[in-house]
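Subject — a protein and its fold
Encoding — discrete vocabulary of local shapes:
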Amino acid sequence: MAKLIAGVMTSHVPAIGAALDNGKSGEPYWQKVFSGYEESKNWLAEIKPDVVILVYNDHATAFSLEIIPTFALGCADEYIPADEGWGARPVPVVKGDPDLAGHIAQSVILDEFDLTIVNKMEVDHGLTVPLSLMCGQPKEWPFKVIPLCVNVIQYPPPTGNRCYNLGKAIRKAVESYDKDLRVVIFGTGGMSHQLQGPRAGFINSEFDNRFLDKLSTDPVALTKIPHLEYIREAGSEGIEMVMWLIARGALDEDAKEIRRFYHVPASNTAVGHMILENAPY
């Protein structure tokens, strides 16, 4: 049977991808960011997952104001890196797992979560930057990827509680799949940041680190944070942090924290990262 073995939470700052793609990762400013992922890259290479379920948000690439799915599950064979205005990132095509994705869709929808099934879409930095942070710059990604795109762009986004419970439904779906697969789930986005208005560049490190503490030890407390608190304490884009709760909901309540990293700044935001493992550790 398939087994969900761990969760990886990470920011997906677009400038991180640009730094890698333009050979700037060794510069002092960016080296501080990338050094925080070296141990994590080694960990991922050692555990060798077969599939990664990657929770992220699209940035008006695959979806627009014409169609806004709350949760969209990629069920395609592959996903092409998107051109976000300056050319597609020079990274490998993302290979999917339509069989497992279809199984997850069936299980989760029958558990009364209304997913949008997507059989063709391009993927932007929200998905490819986390892969680069955790895998470097390989000729091909070392595992299959199932994208789960969450609306945190247009109001109303899903609540943290809804996201956490979706994670539980995904865990149930994965572990009812009849193939022997090792699965890791990524929760991406955040942390505190705001891209526009009088508070552009806003970062709240105290809120970020409190969120990381609770994510590790008391995730249920995070499910009670209302949208307005995210906006006030984490900026208008801080709502992306609810996507981490999907990954956290898919893990044991007492999942073991094995890695944490937090750094300010990276472009105009903070970078947060955590790895949690399910038992047996």
